[in-house]
Structure formats: structure tokens, C-alpha cells
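Can't paste images in this forum, so I'm doing it all in text. The chain is below; anyone willing to post the predicted C-alpha cells underneath?
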Amino acid sequence: MAQIIDGKAISAAIKEELKEKVEKLKEEGTQICLAVIQVGSDPASSVYVGNKKKACAYIGIDSLAYELPEETTQEELLNLIDELNEKEEVNGILVQLPLPKHINEDRIIQAIDPKKDVDGFHPQNVGLLCIGQSGFVSCTPAGIIQLLKRSGIEIAGRECVIIGRSNIVGKPMALLLLRENGTVTIAHSKTKNLQEVTKRADILVVAVGKPKMITREYVKEGAVVIDVGIHRNENNKLCGDVDYDDVAPICSAITPVPGGVGPMTIAMLMYNCVEAGTKR
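Text version of the structure:
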């Protein structure tokens, strides 16, 4: 029977550790503060922003919320980011994506001070990860590493296959697994004989964006399967990129959806905020 990797329990443990750390920092006179900017009222973004505020409140991090109208111009957003970059009491700046179409996301990401880039999306932080130096790491891949380590799953020397090559998950995930001495392959929409590639994996990370695409035909017996996807099925129930019921019986360990990777993203965002507050 597959070990179910419990993201809720692991993220709760990380939050407790951070809560203690934040209390100690407060006693030493340091208060951590995260500024969250949302442009428009996309319902999914509003849920994520709400969850981030709740996590801040629980851990003891101050949060500043900037809820801007959909018609906010790129220049207005850039001016706000400049202000927050200058504010010494603000340690982290997060701009909730996606942004309205008239705003260039790359331009916004690059405007954030890399030392306050708690999402880990700034090219400088991505570059530091590439050359093995310390900087902020994208929260979902960082959370997956914690899931593996805290579940007692060895990465070093194992075949790791990632399906998906996005800047937010696929690419940083490959670099982090490499940093942990995994042997890494990135598969994507142009990969030939995908099943042959994924069946080599001891650790399979699926970030493909298609509901229940990965069935047991893609998975080696005894593999560890990490499902990054989140969708609603025809019955409005949450599901992932992996067909959980089909794949779970042949895995050694698997993340469920919901309750696997999802909770880790916010836990690692909080971790990055605390890091930002201690590095200044």
C-alpha cells in the first residue's frame, strides 16, 4: 500500500517551526512584514490571497494588502512596487498572478527587489539557483523538496523525472532535485515516447496541467509520485494531473489532491518571508 504523503501535516509542522522563530525575532525587536498586491478580483486569486493572509496572521507576520482595481495601469503598479521596495519595514513583496492582460508580468516580476522577492520568480533568484548559490526559491518546488525529505524519501542517486517545464514549477524543480544529487530528466509536450521516459522514474513529479492524464501506464512500480496539478472534475470535485485511484496501488508513495503539494506552497512562502526578515 502506497505511503500517502500528507502535505497538510507537513505544512502545519513547518508553520509551527516558523511561528516559534517569528516569536523569537519579535523578542529581539524584528517584525516580519509581507506586502501582497492583487490586481482585479479573479476568484481563484482572491482565495489564494485570503489563505496567504491567514497564514501570516497565524505565524505572526504582519501583512499589508493592496487590492487594486482591474483597470490599474502598469505604471501605477510599478510605482507601488517602487514604494514597497523602499519601505524598510516591508521584508517581502508578492504580486498575485495572473495579472490583467494589459500588464506585462515579466516587467512586474523584474521590478521587485530580489531581496524581497519571496515568490522566487525574479531572474536574479532564478540565476542564483542555477549556479547553486543561496537566494529565494519558487515556493511549490521548494515545498516538494520538503515533502520528500520530511517523508524520509531519499533523492540522491535516484532517477527523477519532471513532466512540465514551466518557470514556476518544472525548471526550478529540476534544479532543486539536481542540488539534492538526483539524476534529472525534464519531459514536456514535445517529448517522444513519454511513457518510456516516465517509467524510468524513481521519483515522478507531474506538473502537466491536464486532469488525470497520468495513469499507471506512465508509472514504474514502486515509484514516488508527486502531483502538482489541481482541477475540478465533472462532479466539481478536486483532482490532480495524476489518476490517483489508478496509480496509488502501484506506488511506494504518492501525494493526494487536495492535501498534498497545495498546502506546502503557502508554508514555503511563509518560510521565504521569515528568511527575508532575517537576512536584512
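The longest strand covers residues 33-39. Residues 139-261 form a domain with the Rossmann fold fold (CATH 3.40.50.720).
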